[in-house]
Structure formats: structure tokens, C-alpha cells
Specification:
The chain is an alpha+beta fold. It is about 55% helix and about 10% strand. Among the domains are: about 50-110, no CATH class; about 115-200, Arc Repressor Mutant, subunit A (Orthogonal Bundle), CATH 1.10.10; about 235-325, Orthogonal Bundle (Arc Repressor Mutant, subunit A). It has helices spanning about 10-15, 35-60, 115-140, 150-155, 160-180, 195-200, 205-215, 215-265, 275-285, 285-290, 295-305, 335-360, 365-370, and strands at about 90-95, 95-100, 105, 110, 150, 180-185, 190, 275, 310-315, 320-325. The protein starts with 11 loop residues before the first helix and ends with a helix.
Length: about 375
Amino acid sequence: MASTPKRRIKNPKHSSSYPRLSSIEPPPSLLPSMPEFFKLFAVVSIAVTVAIGCNYVVTVFNRQLKPFCNSDTEFDYHLSDTCESCPSHGICTEGKLECVSGYRRYGRSCLEDGNINEMVKNLAKMVESHTCESYSQYLCKGVGKVWVQGDELWNDMDKDNATYQFAKQKAMEIVGNLLETRHAGTGIKELKCPDLLVEHYKPLTCSIHLWLLEHALFLVPCCVLFVGFGLMLQRVRRRHYLSVRAEELYEQVCDILEERALNSRSMNGEGEPWIVASLLRDHILTPRERRDPLLWKKVEDLVQEDFRVDRYPKMLKGESKVVWEWQVEGSLRSSGKKNKDNLNKQKHSEESNLVFNQDLRRLKPGELLRC
């Protein structure tokens, strides 16, 4: 029977003499600390920035700009490495750039000059105003010109300055598109303000005058009809006024004549029952109504149609006067007037009694006893 092998027991002393791998740590001086790391990063960044800047400066100073290609040369500028294409509105000769009139050089390009643009607008506006004002004076006053020669305008403003000549050329293009143009028999170009544009240059009074002349055939019949309608309306109103006012005056005349007759009868015939018609007219008419003879004529017509009034001449102080007299006998007007007066008196007495009763109700018992 085989014997089982025995395990060797390790000596703890020998095992403790070998160090463990997990317990091995790097020395603290091997890696830099956090402040030292930030300092190193800052130094490296500054060095890189300086290197890039120096490289850019050297590149810029060492680089030479390409010359401009001549304007009259015919080849593809984009495929050429020896020269740069000439910019628009520029003239290039022997590699140099010059801008045309009306443009200024900004770097390696030509941009439009703002001062010249303002000059162009002023010249165009000056020509427009002169042409349109001349046409408006012709339409309003019959003086001035319809077509204005362009040479007359430009010769008055002609100058030898190259900049001014360029502005003049641009202004002529604007005016040619804005105004009407034609060529006279001598070959001179003439300008005319359009009808829509000349309306802005006409004074208000002139515009109204021209409008009236243009629509005269329509306005004259309308004015005649309007005036005729106004006269007819005024005539109808006057007739109505005379009719109403004459009836009012006629009522007053009847009241006065009837009262005069009743008073004369009550005085046993001592008073005069008649009244002079002219005196009665001056009594009831206002000074303004006396100037209208037609009003009193209508009153006389109404009195003449009334059989209760007698009209006869009478000699007064050696002059013949027409007098009017009311006939008391058989008159229905006096009875109606009396009934009306009685009704008014009765109504007035009833109103007085009603007010007296209301005052009595307001009084206190003590005050009533003292009264």
C-alpha cells in the first residue's frame, strides 16, 4: 500500500522575506504636481502662439502681390498665376490700377463715389424742375415752352472738369428715362415734362382753373339747373311766407276792427267804429314789412273778400281816406270770440283754485290757526 505524499509546510519566516507586488508604490517625486503642470501648459501655449505669429509675419512680408493684368489683354485671368484680373470699373496698365470717373479705389477694387452720385441727382433734379416749370407756366399762363432744348440746359451748366462731365453724362441718362424726348429737325435733342409729372408743379389755383375749363360743357348746364332750382325754391318759399303772414295780419285786422266796433257800440255811438286803412297798416306792420307792398296787397284782398268788413272813402281833414268798418250785427266772430274768452277765464280760475288748494295743504295746522 503506497504511502500518501506529505505536503510541505512553508516556513513563514522565509515567506515574509519577499515583498508583495501590491505594496510597491512610485516615489512622490516622479510625477509633477498640479501647479507645476499648469505652469508647463502656459509656457508651451505662449511658445506655440509666438511661433505661429512669427510665421505669419514672415509669410506676409515675404509674399509679393500679383500685378494687375492689362485691360486690353485677352486671356483667362483666372488661369493665370502671373497677374491678377483687372476689377470692374477699372483700367489696368502695366500692372497698375486706375478707376474710371465716378469711382474711387478702395484696396484692389473700384467702388462708386458717393459725392458724384449726389452731383448726378442734383443735376437731374435741376433739369427736371426747369422743364416741368416751363411747361406748367405754359398751361397756366400761356407763357413758357412745352419742349425745352437740352443743349440750352447743359450749356448753362457746362464745365471742363472731368468729374463734372461724368456726372453730366449720368444725369442725361436719368433725364432721358424720366422725361419725354424728341429730336428736332436740326438734330437737337428736346425735352418735355410728362403730363402726370407736371401736375406736381402746378399751383392749386391753376389746377382748379384748368379743371373748370376742362369740364365747362358739363358744369355750365349743371350750374344753370342749380340756379334755376334755387330761384324756384326761393319763389315757392316766398309765396308760402306771404300767404301765411297775410292770414296772420288779416286775423289781427279783424280783431282790431271788431273790438273798435264793440267799443263804439258800448259808448252809445260816441266813438268812431271805423279805422283808416293806411293807419291800421302802419300800426300792425313792421318797418321791414312796410317795404313789401305785395304783403299788404294780399291782406287787402282777404279783407275785400270778407263781407263783414265795409270799405268806403271818407273825407278827413280835406283828404279822402279809405276806412274799414266792422259790421257788428249778425257777426259770428264776436260770439265765437266771447266763448273763447270765457273758456280761457274758466281755465285760468280753475288753475288758480288748484294752486291755492296746494298751498293750503302745505301749511301746518298751527300756522293755519294763526292765519
